[in-house]
Amino acid sequence: MTSTLPKKDPSSDERPGAGAAALHSGTSNLRRLLAGNVRQSGIVIAFVAIVALFAVLTGGVSLSPGNITNIVLQYSYILVLAIGMVIVIVGGHIDLSVGSVVALTGAVAAVLVIGGGLPWWVGVVAAVGVGVLVGVWHGFWVAYVGIPAFIVTLAGMLLFRGLTLQVLGNISLSPFPAGYQQIAGGFLNGLIGGQGYDAFTVLIGALGVAGYAVLAYRSRVAKVLDLQQVESFPLFGCRIALVGLVVMAFAWQLASSRGLPVVLVVLSVLVLAYGLLTRRTVFGRHVYALGGNAAAARLSGVKVKAVTFWIFVNMGFLAGVAGVIYSARSNGAQPAAGNMFELDAIAAAFIGGAAVTGGVGTVVGALVGGLIMAVMSNGMQLMGVDQSVQSVVKGLVLLFAVAFDVWNKRRARGDA
Asked: Check: CATH 1.10.1740 for 42-189+258-415?
């Protein structure tokens, strides 16, 4: 007679210390989830804190409707450059020439429109076209000749600044016609009325919040189906509510001033388009793969040269767009236009979470990083802070942002 012993459930683990190991594993997973949330949300928290700080220091002037509108108008071209720059940095490169390209594209538009009397839209097309050609020039030398991007774009910074001087003949040209000026100074208002405010701007803000909530929910569902870790639903709801509150407050302030700026519409379209490009397309995945490990990406079938080439073409295109916005904002073209813009764009990308080694960074993060720089600059100007002190503060913020990225990576390696 044989006795049968109860079979051990393979799904259970009765080894000594198995419970503690499972608890440790769960704790490690939670720690990694929290670390990821800190990396993604920490910049937003910092932005809210900086906005609140300057609101207190300026007695609420920084949050007035007129000042918020001015921030959008004054720093929109930096945000456009930051979108392109973060893609360049994610791909493991850098571009030091964008300030000079902004100057050159604005100069071309001015010569054609102001000097040549052509329609304003011809200047826009020509400026963007010149930006694309600059991107082709840089992409060829970096991708197909193999010269480091730092050297190529440093040479481009000097080359295109010199071409700007030649195109303008060392003089400024102004003013642009009204149609061109509307690109950076126009407003969409009065379309559906409003008593003391622009109802159309409020409606656009509400639609933006609804769209964000739907996309965030769909992203959460997709992660759950893929068995990825997600935040708790109450925390998810709080995040949506907080974003909605901030966006609607921003929309209300714009509506209480002059309405929805045209340049904000342009910027929003770019943010949405490049957000989808980087997260939902093959090209976007290849850019991250290239920046993470170029050799592994090549072995995985990524066409490294082609991806690198189009990264710089895209940067040239966005520099051309920024050149149009800046020249429309300043209502003219100057030989010294765009000075130090490249450093502002690079700072926005790094403050927004891009890694110095490539492979990490988001369009939204770069946008928030650029807004942090804009709010700080605007707030210090309202307080009458000396320009030299402003440079010191912005330099320290950039240094601490990169230091945080380095510390975060070291901590992640320690957890592994």
From this structure: no
